[in-house]
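I hope you will forgive my troubling you with a question about protein structure. The matter concerns a single protein, recorded as an amino acid sequence and a row of backbone structure tokens. Please examine both parts with care and let me know of anything in them that strikes you as inconsistent. Thank you for your consideration; the sequence and its tokens are set out here:
***
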Amino acid sequence: MTKLFQRVLLVFVLIMFITSDTFSNNLTQIVAVDYTTKYMFWAFLLGGLSAISLVLGSALGIIWQPSPRVTAAFTAFGAGALLAALSVELIAPTVQEFVEQSKESLAGTSGHNSSLEFIFLLGGCTLGGIAFYFLNEALNSKGGYLRKVSTTISHFNHKRRDRYHIALKRLSKIKLFRSIPPSHMDVLVQHLRHVHIHAGRSLFKEGDSITRLLIIESGEVETFQDGKLLGVLKQGSLIGELSMLSHHPAAYDAIALTELKVFELSQNDFHLIHESCPELQAIIENESKNELMQDISSHNGEKNHENARVWAQKASHHLHKTTYIPNQTEINQDAKKHGAAPLSIWLGIFLDGIPESFVIGAGFLLILTSKLAHGAVNLADVVPYTLIAGLFLSNFPEAMSSSIGMKKMGWKPLKILTLWTSLMIMTAVGAVFGYYYGVKIPNYIEIGVEGMAAGAMLTMIAQTMIPEAVHIGGSRVTGLSTLAGYLSAVAFKVFE
């Protein structure tokens, strides 16, 4: 592994040497037939330079597993650096030009209308954010969520909330539970346990004293009475509720026909809910047992059905969104369900990198155009330092954190490095496209496209990078590290 890391460092040193003015000028004289090709090659180098940190971060994640706080600090630092780069390089120039042009218009001295560019910038940011959101959701549904800690946690929490909604919908059919005010839902939910039951296991036998209520999330349960099959209970069915609430012995045998996932509420937990919710105790005292049993067994009445629907809807809205952190076993088991997960992970990371690659080329073109107006230029004169630094610093922790997760899922080091290397190359190619099409399209459209890239990256930062840092390191580490990254990228602008 040490040799592999040394090779990656060697590649990095080689690329740094290639980006020197002397070497790049000599090489472009060989491969380029005109200045356009030369500048496209420069855009390729800049794109690769900003993305080489993907490979370096990946290699570091393979050979070293830092503490969660260190990983969080790296991630938040990168998020802050990228925020500064986007603000300084993409948003600020157009906004500043619009403000200055507005002042000139008031003075009657303006000869240029920047309003259209400003409108395209805002529209582009909006479209970019929306596009990223929907594409990200589509890829996550196919296993792409496994590419980052934050998206993995978000996926499992979304599934967990769905399970609770199912449980509340079923519990709403029982009058006792409907008596719990929706604002008390956390009291109920914290006592619900998610349980896995193997196929063939007996849940209880006829005549047993029932001490728990079960809600089937997935799977099937066979019920027998006197050895005869009564029926099969499927998803959403309640098991044992009548016997537990009425304190009657079980009227039938229940056996798991398949692997089961159920919500379990024990009798002891039910009594604890009594103490936390006086309303529940009051209805138990006021309602007779027969009336209660009738409510359970005849819950398909139109009025009762509507009451249950309204209660379940209100109860779901009052669930507090507490964060659940899945363990590695859960993650690995879930990953096996997605046969296309590796491709989705690659596409997800590529989705994160598409905007930045275009922005590199467009930013390079902007500086190149202004410098060429004053004569010949060298590569060092046209590097968008703040943008490159921000992307470099944000890519490094992203690749490191993701590679640590991929390694835990059993991915081989060569497979991980190949993934990130291919993305580095794609980023370099994307920078060429950003430069090339930036030359071809009108300025206001270019600004609109840059706005789309900025909107997508800002959405990505807020949706994945910052939450990931908070999840694994806490808000204190995240806040200060984000500030440090932001100021570091701004410092690059000062030096530039």
Q: What stands out?
A: The domain at 159-317 is CATH 2.60.120.10 (Jelly Rolls). The radius of gyration is 30 Å. Strands lie at 193-197, 202-204, 212-218, 221-225, 228-233, 238-239, 253-256, 260-266.
